What we know:
This protein has 312 residues and is of the alpha/beta class. It has helices at residues 4-8, 121-127, 130-137, 161-172, 190-193, 215-224, 238-246, 266-270, 284-287, 291-295, and strands spanning 20-21, 24-25, 29-31, 44-46, 74-80, 83-90, 93-99, 109-114, 141-146, 181-186, 202-208, 229-234, 251-254, 273-277. It has 2 domains: 4-46, no CATH class; 74-298, Rossmann fold. The protein is built from 10 helices and 14 strands. The longest helix is centred in the middle third of the chain and has 12 residues, at 161-172.
Amino acid sequence: MIASAVLAGCLHVADRGMGRTGGHAEAWVISLADADSSSGPTQALPAAPASAPGDSAAPPSAPVRRPSETTASTTSSEAEAGGTHFRVETPRGPVHVFRPPGYHRATAGVVIYVHGYYVNVDQAWHEHGLGEQFAASRRNALFIVPEAPQSGTENSPWTRLSTLVARACRGARLQVPPGPWVVVGHSAAYRTIVRWLKEPEIRHVVLVDALYGNEASFRRWLDGTRAHKMTMIVKGTTKWAEPFAASLPYTVRAPRVPAELGELSPAARSAKLLYLSSQIGHFELITERKVLPVILGRTGLPAVRKTTPPAR
């Protein structure tokens, strides 16, 4: 849960960009003025960089901690949600790996999920029920969840996605599957994801109320090849997401987040850019545990086999 002190500190920030420090905002947050009245108290959205809604080559950087790469990883594993959950301790922080029930490596892809502010990766895994959400998606993929910034003063230590995937699989003693990579991020996760966009394995990016900076970088990635697709779920980030979507002729819109994939039109299911206006609150998009299982079905990853036992 988000600390009450954070909620109490919400500010309405004008377009003039008040609260800037050292080239980027670190302490201020934006009130979700359009938050659903049924979602309880006013919710806080982590602040965008001072440059938003513009763009730069990379998001504002905090110093990246570089522990010794020679430090050995330690791994624990347990049965979870019908599959296997690994927690890999690395010099760059814990990484969670989930192999779902029915996983078949030959046709599997990789899903990398990046959490937002106010939680660390261990809290996100347990409090948001990520293993359960991944299993409920029924996607044939390895799911990888790294540590990510908890505030604007931090930056992700995983500046190369390929390094993260290799380290996670090596720690879990699993082979990297040959299929496409899907990157999913909530809220301020865009700061981590934008640094990964040059990785050729990425085929689909899912931004869960997570586009409020670096729009030009995301557009360059989306326009880079016909194979690139994006799903945007928009609640509190309309100020940035709406102009981005309106500028792209291939945007397909839906008025709400579907309860199941079949509620989307064929055009929406196959869209290069799908823009979903959310009836669900910014944090509840993750904490209610209903959205990720549905949206992952649009990413092109195959479904798991019902009868195939987990295999390395």
